[in-house]
Amino acid sequence: MFSENEKNIVSNFYSRLDEIEDKELQLFWEQGYAIAQFDTCFEDFADDNEEDEYTSFVFKVVNVEGDVPIEISSAGYFIVNYHNFPQKIEVKH
Questions:
Q1: pTM of this prediction?
Q2: Averaged pLDDT for residues 60-77
């Protein structure tokens, strides 16, 4: 299911998708964080290398603080995958 590149990075998060449905999450990177809700995931591949298939996760942004490695669409969504996966993810209470 997961490539060798992404197995240790995303598999734990993927296994907990049912637990985070409809919850706000705080995604932490070294330079900041994003508060978001998980939306969906899909199989993706690098534009320059069709051999590099991986799972991407789509989030609806609520708030961003600091310099985080995501690109927010005009509709307010962003994607993370093993290339820019957060160092830590917590469920907001």
A1: 0.91
A2: 98
